[in-house]
Specification:
mainly alpha; two-stranded parallel ribbon
Length: about 375
């Protein structure tokens, strides 16, 4: 049904559900554009500008995937002052221009549209601004607010109604929040999602990442057994996203990587990550190669811990580049040689920085030049290096 000329065609089933009070409105940053506030992407960009810092490589990777919440989480871990610095910048760039024409018309309309017959407001928003409150005051509407975990609509996250739950989780995973009270409140439903991974569609990658960050903790109320069972329930592509998130979390810890490895990544790997090597994939191996390199001085222990999951890489240059840049070939020559010998198989061209890694290994421990693995890699580089 169309309500305005050339307007959208609203499905009858949606109109009926609205009449019955079964619609929940999820409102994002776009509704605040008329008040001069940016979308989530623009908000992140303005926070970086306000903090006077440039985006790091790992933060840029999350940003370009549209994972803006994860980008800010990584920024908080890197900056001096961490969470407080980012939140101060957030408050400064989130001031709406309420005198603009139509600044809060959308919010006022939504406050009317999102009500049931009984007048109950069924709306969820992750917006940082308080324009809804301004709109309610100016339009003489009232409503009750609930902050997590005291949310009256939490049961709709339950998978007892798969169609409804799928829609709700897709909305939540569009921009999830690692907020402890909310994690506690949705615990049962969140863990159930692992058994409905495929039903999450294009948002399943975000679920795997969110579950990994939840498991890295510290997260109250979740037991190791519960988190292990949820990770175990994921298919291979889910584990690939978990491995990537694990690596991103460690890389984002900046100068605290060794501590983050010991306190977060190592316990996660030992207690939660699946034990079956049958689940290994080249994509997981690539992430884990980056993981062990990112562990810095914990490199030997990290390598020993994940070595069974490593395998030759199709795209070897980036891992070799990271190893060369890390200086680990000089600090831990035996372990660096072990890693290279696992990751590298002969291709048309050898990684351009392999020779430098081998040189650092030979300088740090000359005896290793007699090792068969070293000689094989050196011959490969000499014949096929660029």
């Amino acid at each position: 049904m169309q309500f305005i000329t050339n307007g959208p065609d609203i499905p009858d089933v949606l109109l009926q559900a609205h009449e019955e009070g079964r619609i929940v409105f999820f409102c994002g940053a776009g509704i605040s554009y008329p008040a001069g506030l940016p979308g989530f992407k623009g908000l992140v960009e303005q926070i970086y500008s306000e903090c006077g810092t440039s985006i790091s490589d790992i933060e840029k990777e999350a940003f370009e995937r549209g994972q803006f919440d994860a980008t800010l989480d990584l920024l908080e871990r890197r900056l001096p002052g961490q969470r407080l610095s980012v939140r101060r910048a957030l408050a400064k760039v989130s001031q709406p221009k309420l005198r603009r024409k139509g600044a809060f018309d959308t919010q006022a309309a939504l406050l009317r549209l999102a009500r049931s017959r009984e007048g109950a407001l069924r709306m969820v928003t992750t917006n940082f601004d308080r324009i809804f409150h301004t709109a309610a005051k100016r339009s003489k509407q009232t409503f009750k607010t609930y902050s997590a975990p005291m949310l009256p609509m939490l049961p709709i996250f339950s998978w007892e109604n798969p169609v409804e739950a799928s829609a709700v989780w897709k909305g939540f995973l569009w921009s999830p929040r690692l907020y402890q009270p909310l994690l506690t409140a949705i615990k049962t439903y969140l863990l159930e999602c692992a058994d409905h991974y495929i039903e999450l569609g294009e948002h399943r990658q975000q679920f795997a990442i969110f579950l990994t960050y939840t498991a890295l903790g510290p997260t109250e109320e979740y037991t190791v057994d519960e988190l292990r069972s949820a990770i175990d329930a994921l298919p291979q592509d889910g584990l690939e996203h978990c491995a990537r998130a694990l690596t991103q979390a460690l890389e984002g810890a900046a100068d605290q990587r060794e501590e983050y490895w010991r306190n977060r990544c190592q316990p996660f790997w030992q207690n939660i990550w699946p034990k079956s090597r049958d689940l290994a994939t080249p994509q997981i191996a690539e992430s884990l190669a980056r993981l062990v390199i990112a562990s810095r001085k914990e490199f030997p222990k990290a390598l020993a811990l994940v070595s069974d999951w490593l395998e030759p890489l199709e795209h070897q240059d980036y891992a070799v580049h990271l190893l060369k840049e890390s200086g680990l070939s000089s600090l831990f020559p035996e372990e660096a040689l072990q890693l290279l010998s696992v990751l590298i198989v002969e291709q048309q061209w050898a990684p351009s920085e392999l020779g430098r890694c081998l040189e650092e290994i030979s300088q740090a421990k000359p005896d290793l030049t007699q090792d068969n693995r070293y000689q094989k890699l050196n011959t490969y580089f000499q014949t096929r290096g660029i």
